[in-house]
């Protein structure tokens, strides 16, 4: 090593070819430090670009995880069959056909018929409009209805005048100081039902036939007392994991078809696939915006390195005069550009993760960072630094040492 003046006039070590990597990086850091504000501004561009990519990919990942939570209780191996009326009659399908689906179709594990409608209910002088769900005991097991107090509808209640209220419906029917509790009476049409249970608050998932918080549940057996038609108008079907849900849906639709109803099949797997495709588009769009920011940061790096080459022509000429090859000079400036980008990348990763955490807390999501984005952000920053540092490095290697020393 020999002594060489820096642009600021100080004396620093000149690294000859074959110097230890630690010494090379230390000198590169010293050269960047000597450029002060210019290095900070270039660092800021890379930091903002990397932070944008990290934050946007993380937010896209969290949004996808939140979407999948809407299938948490029933899973994605589910079909829902809905019947809409044709004409003025009540919609529905034959319950016996639904009950025999698991026996007749090898891809079906469970099939549960339901009737869903909206009715006016009253309790203690308070009347409100809520969803009515006529259910069998198996429905509560399939959907994991959470009970806050009392009990759920059992086999013995098949034709009884008993009711389970959702959390929101119970609050609507409660008077100040007179909370609706098991044992209270709820009137639906001309019938008085006895409350046997109150549900805890539940998330409104994608495959729910109604908002369970704003619903009351009655036994399916004699639901025709208060609902139009005696036939179920909804069916929940659990499939085997390796089954073709689209094909099963078509088979079930054909089996339950009748002249009084139009049937619609809701496929949980198709919903998840559509959600993932949509989130993928958003994620790529957001990443592209972050990429543009990183590109601007790379241009800042190139600008700083070009200015550095112009100001350090004497140093470059002196290095070349004492034996540095064009490759040594290229490597020196490439290392400086890469170091600048990597430091900015690491700062951007930290800033992006922090922004993702803030976003998750602001909208009430669970915070999660996809691990692949961490090396991706830093790696992209380093690559951008190398690409935009290449031109200044080539310019430095082409400096004529005689002209450079004569000019000083």
Characterization of this structure:
Helix content is 50%, strand content 20%. The protein is α+β, with helices and mostly antiparallel strands. A six-stranded mixed beta barrel has the order 4-5-10-7-9-8. Strands 1-2 form a two-stranded antiparallel sheet. The longest helix has 44 residues, at 268-311. The chain starts with a strand and ends with a helix.
Observed structural traits:
408 residues; alpha+beta; 6-stranded mixed barrel; disordered N terminus
Instruction: Tell me the helix content.
Output: 40-55%
Number of strands: 12
The profile of the biggest β sheet is: 6 strands, mixed, barrel
Order of helices and strands: EEHHEHHEEHEEHEEEEHEHHHHH
How many DSSP H or I helices?
12
Distance between the ends: 22 Å
> Biggest sheet: strands side by side, in what order?
4-5-10-7-9-8
| Uncertain runs | 1-16
SS class: alpha+beta
Query: Taking Cα atoms only, what radius of gyration do you get, to the nearest Å?
Result: 35 Å
- Tell me what portion of residues adopts beta-strand conformation: 15-25%
> Rough shape?
elongated
Mean pLDDT: 83
What's the helix and strand layout?
Blueprint (H helix, E strand, L loop, with lengths): L1 E4 L5 E4 L6 H14 L2 H32 L9 E8 L9 H5 L1 H4 L3 E16 L2 E10 L1 H7 L3 E4 L11 E4 L1 H6 L12 E4 L2 E9 L15 E5 L14 E6 L5 H12 L4 E7 H44 L1 H9 L4 H38 L9 H25 L3 H7 L1
Task: Please summarize what this structure is.
The chain has 408 residues and is α+β, with helices and mostly antiparallel strands.
